[in-house]
Amino acid sequence: MSLEAPDLLRIRALPLFEAVNDGVFDRLMRGAFLQRFPRGSQLTTQGQPDNFLFVLLEGAIELEGSSSDRESTLALLWPSASLCLASIVLDGPSLMTARTTKGSLILMVPGDAFRQALEEDAGLGRAVAEELAGCFSGAVRSLKNNKLRTARERLVSYLLAQHQRQGGGAAVKLPCRKRVLASLLGMTPENLSRAFASLGPHGVEIDGSTVTLREPEGLAQLARPDPMIDNPIGESFSQAERERRRGGRTAIAAH
Amino acid sequence: MSLEAPDLLRIRALPLFEAVNDGVFDRLMRGAFLQRFPRGSQLTTQGQPDNFLFVLLEGAIELEGSSSDRESTLALLWPSASLCLASIVLDGPSLMTARTTKGSLILMVPGDAFRQALEEDAGLGRAVAEELAGCFSGAVRSLKNNKLRTARERLVSYLLAQHQRQGGGAAVKLPCRKRVLASLLGMTPENLSRAFASLGPHGVEIDGSTVTLREPEGLAQLARPDPMIDNPIGESFSQAERERRRGGRTAIAAH
DNA sequence: GGCGGCGATTGATCAGCGTCAAGGTCGCGC
DNA sequence: GCGCGACCTTGACGCTGATCAATCGCCGCC
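YS: structure for the whole thing
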């Protein structure tokens, strides 16, 4: 699928590209294209070189790390997150395996063209710096989440964050299968089940992928919520920090 | 301490600044200065705004995250790592608390001047992007290290990484107190002691802060060493990735 | 309708690791 | 020299969470 004018407008408005020089942008887009991927497509492989910068326009992506025979979900990406930015900038191997968890529409920009544009354009440099700072910040949050909290605290924090992100209503929709959520939270599916069950007395009801929080305030006392760990806006890596800075809290689709 | 010519030369050669325009560099350095800090100085506080970009020229820094009453060491920084780059770029609060663990010489650059220079100079933008990509990469490695390995595997991997980094001799010098190492590896000091003891049968001898590895190859079988987790060059966050790319393995002082 | 498979749950058991408490060693200052 | 404190070590115990196994419910398919 080659890029049409309406696509270009949409892309131009992305935070990564909005400050880029017209000429540089045009050259960059000459090699870029949109592609639709069915659910389950593997976009990157941990340890393999990345040749494209991805920007997720519609759909969802799961980032997974693995070593030996173990694997763990490290993050979930939503529109309009970028993917592979760090490995493209460093011209190094992919850090994680990325897989679509829904049918997805993705912008693909050739890596070498992107690196070249980065050398020429200060606006792009600044945008990339901001994006990567957000990624780093998200990763550090995740690290703190894992090292400083128990599994149950992580679950409660996650539920409260989703609760806030989805508008504060009692019903919260889980954005992924429980198995994936368990891995993201650093626990086994069995343990996640038990953790949910243990929250029953605190007003948490589960029905499929909908969770109802009857007493969010009470929950908060279980979780040690912490603004330096739980991001009020984004899920993790990328996309999160920028919005806060811009006076954010601009309506975000309920993930 | 204001900046003299030899200082400026040294700073100019740092990866962050080597591609910056002369004029921009001069303006940036007008507000910058060098400062010596005694051991134990707190440079940043988690959650508080950061007003300076730090570059560690001599000494060592510990990065710590905390929540409620728990705390954990997230990384150790060595020359010539940068500190606060992400929070300066985002103009947001500090992610971690930073403290010198030795007397240290540090370059301090005012944050707003740095942000302004970032808007003007593509060379700086690229350098910052590379540095932050390296930070992100380091944080992801650390996350995988924590989620995919047991405490003992983390210790063995750490020892092997230090072994390689210090030139491959049998004797490895621990770069920090055991208490700090334990926290960095996500375990208690007691558990670290026991883990060390359990490695005795595998040729690991401990004497104070020097560890002797009699059979490194055998150790590797315990550890699941993984190039996508263990960084051959740097310790973590910052400084690591760039060198690899440049055909690295340029002699690195044994930390 | 019946069957097969996947995901989620539940229970029993176990290992890893944290916690608490008690030494032990070293270095420093009086 | 003596005593104190910081750091590390060792042991006993308990909790968190992983593992293994069985069951249930749901959905798609034959």
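YS: worth flagging: Chain B touches chain A through 58 residues (CB under 8 Å).
IM: good catch. Also The first helix of chain B runs from residue 5 to 12.
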